[in-house]
Design goal:
heterodimer; A: 377 residues; mainly alpha; ABC transporter involved in vitamin B12 uptake, BtuC; three-stranded antiparallel β-sheet; 65% helix; B: 402 residues; alpha/beta; Rossmann fold; 2 domains; six-stranded parallel β-sheet; four-stranded parallel β-sheet; 13 helices; 18 strands; 39% helix; 17% strand
Chain lengths: 377, 402
C-alpha cells in the first residue's frame, strides 16, 4: 500500500486532503475499463495537441481535419475501413494469444507469411490463371492462414516443448519472415528486375465496393474490400469461442491461473501450440487480405508495422474481440487522416502515447484511488 | 451491457465527427505544421514523397522543387505529403489528394506506380505524374525521369582523375537495388572512370536501401577498406563523404540534393533540380499539352546537375586540384550536356565491353531509350536489344542474379 502525502512544509499544518491508493480487492465496476481506455486516448490526444502547438500548429485545426478526413464522408470512411481491416485481424491475433498470457509479438511476421502463402496460390501457381474468383478467394485465404499458422506453430512448439520464451522467438521470427519474403521478391518472382512480383490478375483480387460502381455509381472509388467480411466474421467467431465455448474458458483460465487450469486437467502445452496457431492464422489472414485487397502483388512494403499496431489495438480493446473492431477503426482513422499532418510523425507519436497512457491507466484498474480528508485518518 | 458500451462509443465517435466537421476550416497552415488542402481559384499541385522533406537527399530535392514551383508560378498552390510508404499506404494517399481536388499530383517514388495508375483511372480530370516509373496511359497518368547518367558519367571522370592523380587504382560505388536504373547509373560512372583512369577498376557493392545512414556508412567504410580511393553513393545520405572525412586522403561523392556536398572530402554531387521541371510540366498540364507518356528529360533542360560546375558554384578543393587536361575534359562533357550535344546515347555509345569480355554494344552502334530503361526483353512495344543487365569491363564485381 502506497501513500502520497501532500505536505506543504514540515510544519504542523497539513493539507486537509490526501490521496489514498490501495490495491483493489473487489472486482472493479464494469464501466471502469472502457472509461479508462477512453480517458487514456483523451490524455494521449492532449499530449499530441501540446506537441502540435509547440511545433507551431493549431491542434484544433489538426484534430478537426483528422476527424473530417477519416470519418467525415463516405469516401474517407471507406478508406478508414480499408486501413482498419488488417488492424482488426492482427488485433484479434494478439487478443487471443494475450488472453492466455501468451505474448505473441510475431503478428508482423505471421502477416508477411500469410501474404506469402496467398501469393503462392497466384504465383506458383496453385490455381490456374483463369480460375473463378470465389475459388481464388477461398484458396488464398486458406493458404494465407496456413502459412500464418505455421509461423505461429514454430514458436508455440518451442514454448510448449522447451519453454523457449515466446516473446523473443516470435519477435526474431518477424525478421526471418521479412527476409524470407525478400528472397522471393528479389530472386524468384522479381518482375523486370524490380523487387516485386508481377501484379496479380484481376480474378485474384478481393472484390471491392467500387466493383459495384457500374451498377450503382454511389460506390465508385470506395476501396473497402472483402477482407472486412473476413475481419468481422473472425471477430464474432473469436468472441463466441472466448466467451461461450469450453475451449475459450480453458484459454481464459490458463491466462488467469495456470495452476488452477493444470489441476482442472487442462493441457497447457496443447493449448499453447493451438492458440499460437490460431493467432498466427489470423495474422496470416490479415496478410492475405492486404495482398488480395489492396496491394495486388507481393512486394517488400506491404505492412507499415500492422503487426505491432495490433498489440496496441488488443490492449485498447481490453482483449475483447468485438471491441477490437472499434479500436481498429479508431486507429485506422488516426493513421489515415493523421498521415496528412505534415511533417509526419505527429500521428505516430499519438499512437505511441495511447499505448503508454493505456498501460499507465492499468494502475487505476488495479488500485483504488480516493481523495480523502485527513480527519478521516 | 457490452452492447450498450459499443453503441455509446460509436455515438461518441459520430458526435465527434459531426462536431469537428461542422466547424469551419480556418486557415489550415500554421507555422511549421501543415495539412495539404486545395486553395480555391488556384491551380493546386501536390507531391507525395517517400522520405521526410528534410532528408538531405532525394525527397528534399523534390520538396525544394515543389516550393520553387509555388514561388515561381502565379496562381499555383502547392502541398506536400512526406513519409508515405510504398504499396500499402500510397493508394489511399493519392485518392485522398484527388478527392480534395488537387489538379496535378506528383508521385516521388518508384513504388507509387500501381497506386497512381489505379487512382488516375478513377479521376480522369486530374493529372498524375510519376517520377522514376515506367507506366503511363497517355491521358492523365505519365512517368518522368531525367538524364542523370550524364552527370554520373562526369562524376566518374572526376573520381578516375582523382584516383590517377593520387596514384590509386581503385574507386568504389554503393548501388542500392539491382534494377535497370542502378545498372545504368553505375555503368555510366564506370565508363567515366575508364575515360580518365584506364588503369582503375570500380568496386561496386549493393546496399539494398535508398535511405539508411548506418547501412550507407558501413557500405562506404567497407569500400574504403577494400582500397577504393573515391566512393560514390547511389543512395540518399552523405555517408560516402562523411566516411571519407574520417580517413586520410580519400574522397566521397554524394547524390540527389544540391546541399549534400559541403565538406572538403566531398568531390561533387550529381543532383536533381526539380523546380524548373515541375514548372514546365505544370505549364503544359495547364495548357492541356502535356502528353502523359514517358517523359525523359535531357541534361540540357537543367533538370540534372553536377555540384561545383553550375552557375555560382565553386569547384570543391579535391576537384579544383585535378590535372588541368582532365578538368578540361570534364568541363567539355558538362558544356556538351548543357548545350544538348552530349547526351545519354553518347555515354552508352559502342564499343562497350562487359566484365567477361563480351561486346555489349558494338563499335559505331548506340543504345536506344528502351535499352537504357530496361533489361532485355523489355516491355511489349518498347523492346530492348541490348538492355542494362551488364557491368562495364572495369567493374570489379560480379553481375548479381536477378
Amino acid at each position: 500500500m502506497a501513500e502520497i502525502n501532500n505536505t506543504k512544509s514540515a510544519s504542523s499544518w497539513k493539507f486537509p486532503f490526501r490521496i489514498k491508493i490501495e490495491n483493489r480487492v473487489d472486482n472493479p465496476p464494469k464501466w471502469l475499463s472502457p472509461t479508462l481506455s477512453v480517458g487514456a486516448i483523451i490524455i494521449a490526444l492532449l499530449i499530441g495537441a501540446i506537441v502540435i502547438w509547440m511545433g507551431g500548429g493549431n491542434p484544433w485545426a489538426a484534430y478537426s481535419h483528422i476527424a473530417k478526413y477519416s470519418l467525415g464522408s463516405v469516401g474517407v470512411l471507406s478508406d478508414t475501413l480499408v486501413k482498419a481491416i488488417p488492424l482488426m485481424l492482427v488485433g484479434l491475433a494478439c487478443s487471443i494469444a494475450f488472453r492466455m498470457k501468451l505474448w505473441n509479438i510475431g503478428a508482423e511476421g505471421q502477416f508477411f507469411l500469410g501474404a506469402f502463402g496467398a501469393s503462392l496460390v497466384v504465383l506458383l501457381p496453385i490455381l490456374p490463371e483463369d480460375a473463378p474468383k470465389w475459388l481464388f478467394i477461398i484458396t488464398m485465404a486458406f493458404f494465407g492462414m496456413l502459412f500464418g499458422a505455421l509461423w505461429g506453430f514454430i514458436p508455440g512448439l518451442l514454448k510448449a516443448r522447451y519453454n523457449v520464451n515466446e516473446i523473443i522467438s516470435t519477435l526474431m521470427m518477424n525478421y526471418i519472415a521479412i527476409e524470407w519474403n525478400n528472397y522471393f521478391i528479389y530472386a524468384v518472382w522479381s518482375e523486370r528486375g524490380f523487387q516485386m512480383s508481377r501484379m496479380f490478375q484481376r480474378n485474384a483480387w478481393l472484390p471491392r465496393l467500387s466493383d459495384l460502381s457500374t451498377r450503382w455509381p454511389f460506390f465508385s472509388g470506395l476501396t473497402t474490400h472483402f477482407g472486412l467480411v473476413f475481419a468481422v466474421l473472425a471477430a464474432i467467431i473469436l468472441w463466441l469461442i472466448l466467451s461461450k465455448s469450453k475451449w475459450g474458458y480453458e484459454i481464459r483460465l490458463i491466462g488467469d491461473n495456470p495452476k488452477a487450469a493444470e489441476y482442472a486437467g487442462i493441457s497447457i502445452k496443447k493449448n499453447i501450440v493451438l492458440v499460437m496457431m490460431v493467432s498466427g492464422a489470423l495474422a496470416g489472414l490479415a496478410g492475405m487480405s492486404e495482398i488480395g485487397g489492396v496491394v495486388h502483388r507481393l512486394q517488400g512494403a506491404i505492412s507499415p508495422g500492422y503487426g505491432y499496431t495490433g498489440i496496441i489495438i488488443a490492449w485498447l480493446a481490453k482483449l475483447n474481440p468485438l471491441a477490437v473492431i472499434l479500436a481498429s477503426i479508431l486507429f485506422g482513422a488516426l493513421i489515415l487522416a493523421g498521415r496528412e499532418v505534415q511533417p509526419a510523425g505527429i500521428p505516430t507519436l499519438i499512437q505511441g502515447m495511447i499505448m503508454v497512457t493505456l498501460i499507465a491507466s492499468d494502475f487505476f484498474y488495479r488500485n483504488r484511488v480516493t481523495i480523502i480528508r485527513r480527519v478521516e485518518d | 451491457m457490452k452492447k450498450k458500451t459499443f453503441w455509446l462509443v460509436i455515438s461518441l465517435m459520430l458526435i465527434a465527427a459531426f462536431v469537428f466537421t461542422a466547424c469551419q476550416p480556418a486557415p489550415e497552415e500554421v507555422g511549421g505544421v501543415q495539412i495539404p488542402d486545395i486553395e480555391d481559384g488556384k491551380f493546386n499541385v501536390a507531391i507525395v514523397m517517400l522520405s521526410n522533406h528534410d532528408d538531405g537527399g532525394w525527397s528534399q530535392a523534390q520538396w525544394e522543387g515543389i516550393n520553387y514551383l509555388e514561388e515561381n508560378m502565379d496562381g499555383v498552390h502547392t502541398a506536400y505529403l512526406e513519409l508515405v510508404a510504398e504499396g500499402a499506404d500510397s493508394e489511399q494517399v493519392f485518392r485522398a489528394l484527388a478527392r480534395k481536388g488537387f489538379d496535378l499530383i506528383f508521385g516521388g517514388s518508384f513504388g507509387y506506380m500501381d497506386s497512381m495508375e489505379v487512382v488516375a483511372e478513377e479521376f480522369p480530370d486530374i493529372g498524375f505524374v510519376h517520377i522514376s516509373g515506367y507506366k503511363f496511359n497517355g491521358t492523365n497518368f505519365g512517368n518522368m525521369f531525367g538524364e542523370m547518367e550524364v552527370m554520373k558519367y562526369a562524376a566518374g571522370m572526376i573520381a578516375g582523375s582523382r584516383a590517377k592523380a593520387d596514384g590509386a587504382t581503385r574507386v568504389g560505388g554503393m548501388a542500392t537495388f539491382p534494377i535497370p536504373e542502378e545498372f545504368r547509373l553505375f555503368n555510366a560512372y564506370a565508363l567515366g572512370v575508364q575515360e580518365t583512369c584506364p588503369d582503375c577498376d570500380v568496386d561496386i557493392r549493393w546496399i539494398f536501401t535508398w535511405h539508411d545512414p548506418i547501412v550507407e556508412r558501413e557500405g562506404a567504410d567497407s569500400l574504403f577498406d577494400a582500397g577504393s580511393h573515391v566512393v560514390m553513393t547511389g543512395a540518399d545520405t552523405p555517408a560516402s563523404a562523411l566516411a571519407a572525412a574520417d580517413r586520410e586522403g580519400v574522397y566521397g561523392i554524394t547524390y540527389d540534393w544540391v546541399g549534400s556536398c559541403t565538406i572538403d572530402e566531398c568531390l561533387t554531387a550529381p543532383y536533381w533540380v526539380w523546380g524548373p521541371v515541375f514548372v514546365r510540366i505544370t505549364e503544359e498540364v495547364q495548357a492541356g499539352t502535356y502528353p502523359y507518356m514517358a517523359d525523359y528529360f535531357d541534361a540540357s533542360t537543367g533538370g540534372v546537375a553536377l555540384y561545383g560546375f553550375m552557375d555560382g558554384q565553386e569547384l570543391q578543393p579535391g576537384v579544383a586540384s585535378l590535372p588541368a587536361d582532365d578538368l578540361a575534359k570534364i568541363q567539355a562533357v558538362m558544356d556538351g550536356a548543357a548545350a544538348g550535344e552530349f547526351d545519354r546515347f553518347d555515354v552508352f555509345a559502342g564499343p562497350i565491353v562487359d566484365i567477361d569480355g563480351n561486346i555489349v554494344v558494338p563499335d559505331g552502334e548506340f543504345m536506344t531509350q528502351a535499352d537504357i530503361d530496361q533489361f532485355v526483353p523489355g516491355a511489349p512495344g518498347f523492346e530492348a536489344t541490348y538492355g542494362m543487365y551488364w557491368w562495364n569491363q572495369n567493374i570489379a564485381a560480379d553481375l548479381p542474379d536477378l
